[in-house]
Q: What sequence folds into this?
């Protein structure tokens, strides 16, 4: 085949939810039955058309494959599973006559239906995006169903754009998959690579037939050293997959994108593979100064796509330094292109949409559209020389210098407090001593609780909007929130929960709420990014040194506790999660920033205790997601991340029970870190993965309180009493009952009240049944 030249400037991917979350609203309307599939398809087509036009306006070529076709209705890994026919057996009934799936069936696999649980969900590498985990068994029959991938390319071509289809690559697809529970011992999904690759080859042929010049296979698994498979096997899979795909006669040129870090030891194998272009993440990684001669020779014959614009954060960055990296790469290959380091899926659309951010702060920022502009600028410099873009490079340097010297970026009092920390500031009393002190909490065996939030109703959101617009006063808003808190407290009492929460009606988001009350943060109006499916978050911007001007949660917790004789948990978001779910400054080590946040939370815990709160939960759902992909970087991360949590909580009295919460990640690799948090009780996602985490807990020697979730709140399904009972019985079989708590997987904010109440009723009924069964066994034994 004759390769078509790769575009000089491109991006790895682009936000797909719409500038005003149009896709989210359309998808949720489809789920609710307010629109049909045709209307949803029309909205999606409009969004794709708008994206192509916008990217062309920002400087990407219309006819050179510079624009990626990276749209998805829900998740790109689910899209790949559907395209290769990898549908779990429980959903086989959803296939159409041609073996494919319509939109309703597609969403059913993502969200579940009746007794059929959805695909498991976990974090996409070290980002805050969640993907759906394919289930691959020895019997999975792969078959091509690429009609949607081809149709979207053709849609673009007919509109005058030659775009680049983007598909999760075969290696990453299988490495991220899991085997079903009944798979033979020793089986791994990557064992099926030889069976899967021919389906990808047929996909290439279909795209070539449709006129595609390039196809992008996303292979971030080649970067990660944190996968279950050995590194040797990961590297061996490169030749097994791409030698076959590269030798296909009828195919587009292949671009392998490997973001989130350096390829390191995978680079020689990928360089030797018959692919035409390779991306290099030069923000988080680098290309070694010297490689073996064979690898250098192979790279010289390929297009090297320099990922020098940070796709993972929102800072304007140092464009002059980025351009220097591109220039240096020209000595390694005769064909160099400029790109983002990752997909722009992780950043908001456009900083120009933000009318309320401080203008000085805005001058330091670059959202997705600004990053596309940066790529276009650097590509122009690559084509025409540095002088052609000197003004743009200099302007970025001026903004960088202005940011470094701006008030609030460095606060001496915050730095001095950090410098004065001692070893003892990170340690509580011994756990056994705390257990004795906490006996006065008088909790039953298998205590029931929730993670914190209750459904955010339309009334709550309207009240918050009215406060923001000035339609109601702060006092009126407080009154409305107090009414909601009392309603939630009474509901929990009626249901029979043991430890209550206030429901968090006053919180727009578990991170933004705190960002609005801490110095050093800013929040956006339209800075939405996709977390999973239709779920979007609005990460705050952590731009300066962090401190707490005044208590943030105490008044709400104190009021809730005044309503009941049962314990009400104080609810805080931990320092690691506040960092992970914000756009964090890149001019200070993350550990230092985490300790600044931790000190603010430490002060809040002290004030909660003074208000009479005996149980305080400090959520750290992001602990696993920030774990570096490179093994050498993990010890330092675990040291500062665990240390920041301990700094936040170590001031608590022995009689105060400190909880934490983690969700939607593979926890086995950080079980020691979870133990080292030294929380009295840890609640953890377990329902969607069918309680598999209890095996890790049992074998690790974990000896603190633990609450493996029994209700998957990311699905609209209501778990049956039998389902919850089965999960609880498995947990009790592995974990001593005196350490076991009963709770949902996560907060209930996104669920409706009908399903929430029904699910909690089933949890309470199942818990009572398991308690009674244990009493019967104890009685029989005596």
A:
């Amino acid at each position: 085949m004759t390769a078509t030249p790769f575009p000089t400037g491109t991006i790895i991917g682009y936000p797909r939810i719409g500038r005003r979350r149009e896709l989210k609203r359309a998808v949720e309307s489809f789920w609710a039955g307010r629109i049909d599939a045709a209307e949803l398809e029309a909205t999606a087509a409009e969004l794709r058309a708008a994206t192509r036009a916008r990217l062309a306006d920002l400087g990407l070529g219309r006819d050179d494959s510079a624009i990626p076709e990276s749209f998805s209705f829900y998740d790109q890994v689910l899209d790949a599973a559907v395209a290769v026919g990898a549908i779990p057996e429980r959903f086989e009934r959803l296939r159409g006559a041609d073996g494919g799936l319509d939109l309703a069936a597609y969403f059913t696999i993502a969200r579940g239906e009746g007794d059929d649980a959805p695909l498991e969900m976990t974090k996409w590498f070290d980002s805050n995006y969640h993907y759906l985990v394919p289930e691959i068994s020895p019997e999975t029959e792969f078959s091509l169903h690429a009609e949607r991938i081809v149709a979207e390319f053709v849609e673009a071509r007919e509109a005058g754009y030659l775009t680049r289809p983007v598909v999760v690559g075969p290696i990453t697809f299988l490495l991220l998959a899991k085997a079903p529970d009944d798979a033979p011992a020793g089986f791994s999904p990557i064992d099926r690579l030889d069976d899967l690759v021919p389906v990808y080859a047929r996909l290439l042929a279909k795209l070539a037939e449709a006129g595609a010049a390039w196809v992008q296979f996303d292979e971030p698994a080649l970067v990660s050293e944190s996968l279950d498979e050995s590194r040797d096997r990961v590297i061996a899979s490169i030749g097994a997959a791409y030698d076959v795909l590269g030798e296909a006669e009828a195919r587009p040129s292949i671009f392998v994108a490997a973001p989130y870090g350096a390829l390191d030891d995978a680079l020689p194998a990928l360089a030797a593979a018959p692919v035409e272009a390779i991306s290099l993440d030069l923000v988080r990684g680098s290309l070694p100064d010297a490689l073996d001669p064979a690898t250098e020779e192979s790279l010289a014959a390929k297009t090297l796509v320099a990922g020098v614009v940070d796709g993972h954060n929102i800072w304007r960055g140092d464009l002059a330094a980025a351009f220097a990296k591109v220039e240096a790469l020209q000595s390694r290959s005769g064909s160099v292109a400029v790109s983002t380091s990752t997909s722009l899926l992780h950043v908001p659309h456009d900083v120009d949409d933000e009318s309320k951010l401080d203008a000085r702060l805005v001058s330091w920022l670059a959202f997705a559209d600004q990053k596309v502009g940066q790529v276009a600028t650097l590509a122009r410099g690559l084509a025409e020389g540095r002088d052609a873009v000197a003004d743009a490079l200099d302007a970025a340097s001026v903004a960088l210098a202005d940011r470094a010297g701006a008030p609030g970026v460095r606060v001496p009092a915050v730095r001095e407090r950090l410098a004065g920390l001692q070893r003892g500031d990170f340690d509580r009393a011994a756990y056994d001593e705390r257990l004795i002190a906490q006996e006065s909490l008088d909790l039953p065996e298998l205590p029931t609780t929730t993670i914190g939030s209750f459904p955010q109703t339309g009334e709550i959101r309207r009240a918050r909007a009215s406060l923001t617009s000035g339609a109601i006063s702060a006092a009126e808003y407080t009154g409305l929130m107090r009414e909601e808190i009392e309603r939630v407290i009474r509901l929990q009492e009626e249901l029979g929960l043991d430890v209550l929460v206030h429901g968090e009606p006053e919180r727009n988001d578990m991170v933004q709420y705190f960002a609005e009350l801490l110095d050093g943060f800013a929040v956006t109006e339209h800075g939405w990014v996709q977390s999973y499916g239709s779920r979007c978050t609005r990460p705050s911007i952590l731009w300066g040194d962090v401190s707490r001007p005044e208590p943030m949660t105490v008044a709400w917790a104190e009021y809730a506790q005044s309503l009941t004789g049962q314990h009400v948990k104080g609810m805080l978001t931990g320092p690691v999660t506040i960092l992970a779910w914000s756009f964090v400054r890149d001019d200070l080590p993350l550990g230092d920033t985490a300790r600044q946040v931790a000190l603010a939370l430490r002060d809040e815990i002290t004030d909660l205790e003074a208000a009479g709160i005996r149980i305080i939960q400090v959520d750290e759902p992001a602990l696993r997601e920030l774990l570096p992909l490179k093994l050498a970087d993990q010890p330092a991360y675990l040291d500062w991340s665990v240390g920041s949590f301990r700094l936040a909580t170590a001031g608590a009295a022995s009689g105060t029970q400190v909880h934490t919460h983690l969700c939607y990640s593979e926890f086995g690799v950080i079980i020691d870190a979870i133990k080292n948090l030294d929380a009295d009780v840890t609640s953890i996602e377990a329902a969607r993965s069918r309680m598999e985490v209890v095996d890790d807990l049992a074998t690790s020697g974990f000896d603190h309180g633990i609450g493996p979730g029994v209700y998957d709140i990311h699905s609209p399904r209501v778990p049956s009493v039998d389902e919850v009972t089965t999960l609880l019985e498995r947990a009790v079989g592995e974990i001593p009952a005196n350490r076991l708590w009963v709770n949902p997987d996560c907060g209930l904010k996104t669920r409706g009240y009908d399903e929430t109440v029904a699910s909690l009723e089933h949890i309470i009924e199942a818990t009572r049944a398991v308690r009674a069964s244990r009493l019967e066994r104890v009685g029989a034994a005596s």
User: Anything to note?
Assistant: The radius of gyration is 26 Å. Residues 753-781 form the longest helix (29 residues). The first strand starts at residue 68 and ends at 69.
